[in-house]
């Protein structure tokens, strides 16, 4: 059955154009246990349950402002999650010395909206560029993102193995797969490009090969991700987005096939969702020796 975007009441409310996303509270305090361990913890929690939806993609002529408002209206999945900072993506924290003398800095970063384009494909793969229906490969600059997922409990950070990490994003022209456009511009149902999940290994690591995303009106360039884990029989979900330096995005988007869409009209500072904590979710992207780009993202979940 074709997937369609459910109509959101926010589309009829002009005040939603500038409405803030779901409430997020933050507090700062210092970790001062385990001898010399000390760090800054930015704790964030937010209201709302999971907002799963399969919706429209983005293309020229679509009601992008309505889509932006739907993005803003989607609540995060779960309160309380975090980001383990200053740790290389491949580092196994199980061997870290937390008995004293060292410093471990743990930073809890904000969750952000799931948005209207999540489809729970359950497609296990590390390279998400292909479309399983016909084997075609989405064109654009390759981007390898390595997640290092840890569990932040009290003052300890340990690798979180067997966590399910999903990613999804728009292609070089701003189109999401496996959705029906609400304005009839396109139908990508049955396509599954730029979607997939990996389970973290014993060191908490999951790596993906995807594309540097394209853009659509109302949003800055971003990649969505969701982490699901079960600890002591209790299920946890963390949902957020990854962002990119504007200067690098300008460089990438000046090349084909991105350049076909023209110059983007929404940068980081203009994106209402980015303003809620996007600076803490910026990827440190570097050029890969073999071409394309690579980035690591470390995250410690408060579970």
Descriptive account of the structure:
With 303 residues, the protein is mainly β. The chain has one domain: Protocatechuate 3,4-Dioxygenase, subunit A (Sandwich). It has helices at residues 64-73, 246-253; strands at residues 24-31, 39-46, 83-84, 106-107, 142-153, 156-159, 164-168, 195-199, 205-211, 222-231, 234-243, 286-287, 293-301. The strands form four sheets. Strands 5, 6, 9, 12 and 13 form a five-stranded mixed β-sheet that branches. A hairpin with a 2-residue loop joins strand 10 and strand 11.
Tags for this model:
303 residues; mainly beta; Protocatechuate 3,4-Dioxygenase, subunit A; 4-stranded antiparallel beta sheet; 13 strands; globular; disordered N terminus
Briefly note the CATH topology name: Protocatechuate 3,4-Dioxygenase, subunit A
Poorly predicted residue ranges: 1-62, 72-105
- CATH homologous superfamily identity: Aromatic compound dioxygenase
User: Span from first to last CA?
Assistant: 37 Å
How many domains is the backbone divided into?
A: 1
Gyration radius over CA: 19 Å
Structural class: mainly beta
Instruction: Estimate the mean pLDDT confidence.
Output: 73
Number of helices: 2
Broad CATH class: Mainly Beta
Largest sheet: 5 strands, mixed
Assess the beta-strand content as a share of residues: 25-35%
Q: What's the total count of β strands?
A: 13
Shape: globular
Into which percent range does the helicity of residues fall? under 10%
CATH architecture: Sandwich
The SSE order reads EEHEEEEEEEEEHEE
């Amino acid at each position: 059955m074709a997937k369609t975007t459910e109509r959101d009441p926010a589309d009829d409310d002009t005040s939603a154009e500038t409405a803030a996303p779901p409430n997020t509270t933050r507090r700062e305090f210092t970790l001062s246990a385990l001898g010399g361990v000390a760090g800054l913890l930015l704790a964030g929690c937010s209201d709302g349950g999971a907002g799963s939806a399969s919706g429209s993609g983005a293309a020229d002529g679509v009601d992008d402002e309505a889509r932006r408002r739907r993005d803003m209206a989607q609540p995060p999945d779960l309160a309380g999650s975090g980001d383990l900072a200053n740790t290389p993506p491949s580092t196994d924290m199980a061997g870290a010395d937390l008995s004293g003398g060292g410093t471990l800095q743990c930073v809890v970063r904000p969750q952000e909206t799931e948005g209207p384009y999540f489809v729970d494909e359950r497609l296990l793969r590390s390279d998400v560029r292909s479309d399983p229906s016909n084997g075609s490969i989405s064109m654009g600059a390759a981007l390898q993102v390595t997640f290092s997922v840890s569990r932040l409990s009290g003052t300890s950070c340990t690798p979180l193995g067997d966590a399910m990490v999903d990613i999804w994003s728009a292609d070089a022209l701003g189109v999401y797969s496996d959705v029906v456009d609400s304005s009839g511009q396109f139908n990508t149902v049955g396509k599954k490009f730029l979607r997939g999940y990996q389970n973290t290994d014993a060191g908490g690591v999951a790596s993906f090969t995807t594309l540097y995303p394209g853009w659509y009106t109302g949003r800055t360039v971003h990649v969505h991700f969701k982490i699901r884990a079960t600890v002591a029989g209790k299920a946890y979900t963390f949902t957020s987005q990854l962002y990119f330096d504007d200067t690098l995005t300008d460089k990438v988007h000046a090349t084909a096939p991105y350049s076909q869409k023209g110059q983007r009209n929404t940068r980081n500072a203009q994106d209402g969702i980015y303003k809620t904590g996007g600076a803490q979710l910026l990827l440190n992207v570097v050029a890969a020796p073999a071409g394309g780009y690579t980035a690591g993202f470390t995250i410690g979940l408060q579970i």
